[in-house]
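--- STAGE predict ---
source: upstream dedup step, 1 unique chain passed
mode: sequence only
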Amino acid sequence: MSRNSDVVVIGGGPAGSFAALKLAQMNVDVTLYEEHGDIGIPSHCAGHLSIGGLNRLGMFPLPEEIVENTFSRATFYSPNCKQFSVRLERPATCAVNRALFDQYISRLAQDAGANVCLNSRVKSLTFDNNIVNGVTVKHNNQTVKTRARMVIDGEGISSRLLREVGLQGLNRQMLVNGIEAEVENTKNIDLDSVELYFGSEYAPGFYAWLIPKKDGKAKVGLAAKTGNPKTCFEKLMTRHPVASAKLQNSRVVRTVLHPITLGGPAPKSFSNGFLAVGDAASQVKSTTGGGVIFGMTCAAIAAQVTSEAIERDDFSSEFLSTYQKRCGEALGFDVRTMIRMRKTLDAMSDEKLDRLTDMCARLGLEKTLRSVNDIDLQGRALLHVLRSPRMLTALGYFLLTYLIGNP
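--- STAGE serialize ---
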């Protein structure tokens, strides 16, 4: 199981496996350690991904068995069930089976030459003169140390190893608690539309979602900043004026609880011999909580910087800071825009969300948004639609709400 490598990657999620894939494609000797017996299990994500983002990563089209549905429409319900729908010119998102998706990336990495070790939990990092030089791994009942010239941490939201190198962990004030379920026996669901439900009674501090699958099942979930997400989920299923009509007779096949970080990327995700990617570095959209595309984007950058570090034989924090700089160049504007949008949404009462939703519908904003084709780069998408007077009016209200706060 244990072997010395040029690079150790921790965690077989999309970010970790994609980093391993990119490194293997550059002929770097890389070993990935995954603590579970199967890649992608348990799944902690709805798997609702941007087709544009997958295209940028060279990951679309995906194998048919991975894609559960595609969508060109989103329907938003305000706290008082005011409705606003957007239908795009072409499918912009897809629902994927996250276990199969994660396994697909891992398999590509192995085919490219990466070594993947399952049932292997990285317990700690090892150091030499304050430089990370490997990991301690527990495989079944055996604990061993393995050396590496670089370590890439894709362990997920715990950020446990980030703190080992003295870096700041996640902003706990910007965490929401999520619950994700798969249900069957739904009623009257538009297979082409993702539905989003807002309101403090059902998802305080965030929103709930319904993502239909072509097999008649659906992915239903929510996240909440306060309260018990299980209680909120039960209320959504049985009492929400719109959602309950579609879900109250549904059978829940599985549920999983998971935290979501909305605070934006970690202020520093590099140290001597160490980089962090994905949820470990909080590379997550503050607006939606989606992190797969952002995490994989940064993982590709981490792989490139790591390859350059090996060529230069320079694993210093000074050189590896290039990673953070390049991630900022790729995503920084969009990240900053989404953080501002999240703060504005957090400042809005249910009444204001009702009025904003109603105003978007009355302004005919769906016509302006129809040409949006990338839901990940939301800052750039906003610039694209700001040419519309309708959008300027809506944005003005949005910003005014942030400045004056709640009534």
